[in-house]
Specification:
It is built from 14 helices and 12 strands. It is of the alpha/beta class. α1 runs parallel beside α8. 35% of the residues are buried.
């Protein structure tokens, strides 16, 4: 899949440290603004215990997990919409991603410079929201100019589109994001075609100190309260802890370290899974002697489209999909046993793939 998330935030909030923990890519993480100038792209394995459980039964030669792309984008400052700092570059990079991971500083540390002098997660969130909204307003105003010319024709559809975009502009002008604007079906395509920055789904990550990794702190609580108004998910993660975990070599060492911190699993695992969900993705599996593999497809995809993720020929020559539910595969222990129990479904072109489906595609080219 080409879909990817972009990590954004003010300078020095821990974006690159978190990116390194996610990808172990050793992107530059420094204690000064704009350490990241060019965006870093990481391809990250999506943790999924179902993959190993299937492999334990099938015993393949190879196990292949699915992945998601993460882009570490340069820090943004107030005035970015007018080109301040790395503003134009930053906004261009955001336009390339499908969803946003907004890292917000929720820790105190006098040794780590804050661009505005002190920690205030609500102010920091508002700075980025404002800059993205201002850029979206520019986009909407340009579209209004085009639609106003079309509306002179007196065609009802053109007039309705113009009225819709004017309402959207008024909404943005209040400081609200496009995500919170109610879009009725007749205008869904027009809204999507605007490619607004604040229409992208968002996940907030509170970068907290080690002591606050489990239960949060005063700063993170404030952000959680505000984010709830957008119906947005918020994760508590300590980038400092995550950077220590990736230095440990064995799983036992990592587990022991997490237990000492009172945590069940690395924060990056939760972040990856949440990013995957944010992109509206699900996983299906193929299982055979050569390999057991996880594949990514958008939720709501048909069987032929899922087949096309494996190879375009599979989609072009699609005949049928032989589908086993994950829980049935685990319960009966093998594809043959599932067939004998009458639990394998034979599905056609209209079948909507479900998360966890184990599928064998039949095709002819």
């Amino acid at each position: 899949m080409a879909l990817k998330c972009g990590i954004v935030g003010l300078p020095n909030v821990g974006k690159s440290t978190l990116f390194n923990a996610l990808t172990n890519a050793k992107a530059l993480a420094a204690n000064y603004p704009f350490a990241t100038k060019e965006p870093n792209l990481g391809v990250i394995t999506v943790p999924d215990p179902r993959l190993q459980k299937l492999a334990d039964l099938v015993k393949p030669k190879k196990i292949v997990p699915t992945t998601v792309e993460i882009l570490d984008i340069a820090g943004l400052i107030q005035g970015a919409s007018k080109g301040e700092g790395l503003g134009n570059q930053f906004l261009s990079n955001i336009r390339e991603v499908d969803a946003i991971i907004h890292v917000v500083r929720c820790f105190e540390n006098e040794n780590v410079i804050h661009v505005d002098g002190h920690v205030d997660p609500i102010r920091d969130k508002d700075v980025i929201d404002t800059e993205l909204i201002l850029k979206d307003l520019e986009t909407v105003e340009k579209r209004i100019e085009k639609l106003a010319k079309l509306a002179k024709s007196a065609a009802p559809a053109d007039k309705a589109n113009l009225e819709f975009v004017i309402q959207l502009k008024d909404h943005l002008a209040t400081g609200a994001t496009a995500r919170t604007f109610m879009v009725e079906e007749p205008f869904a395509a027009l809204f999507k075609d605007l490619y607004l920055l604040t229409a992208k789904p968002i996940l907030y990550v509170c970068n907290v100190d080690e002591r606050s990794a489990k239960n949060g702190n005063e700063h993170s609580n404030k952000l959680i309260e505000v984010a709830s108004e957008e119906d947005a998910e918020v994760l508590l993660i300590s980038a400092a802890i995550e950077s220590e975990i990736i230095q440990l070599e064995s799983d036992d060492e990592k587990l022991m370290f997490l237990e000492e911190m009172g945590l069940e699993k690395p924060g990056v695992h939760r972040l990856i899974r949440s990013s995957y969900s944010l992109l509206n993705l699900i996983t299906f599996f193929t299982a055979g002697e050569k390999e057991v593999r996880a594949w990514t497809v958008e939720k709501g995809s048909t069987a032929p489209r899922a087949a096309g993720v494996i190879h375009t020929d599979f989609e072009k020559g699609f005949i049928r999909a032989e589908v086993i539910k994950y829980k049935d595969f685990i319960q009966f222990g093998s594809e043959a046993a599932v067939k004998d129990a009458g639990k394998m479904g034979v599905e056609g072109k209209e079948y909507i793939v479900k998360d966890g489906d184990v599928i064998h595609f039949r095709f002819n080219v």
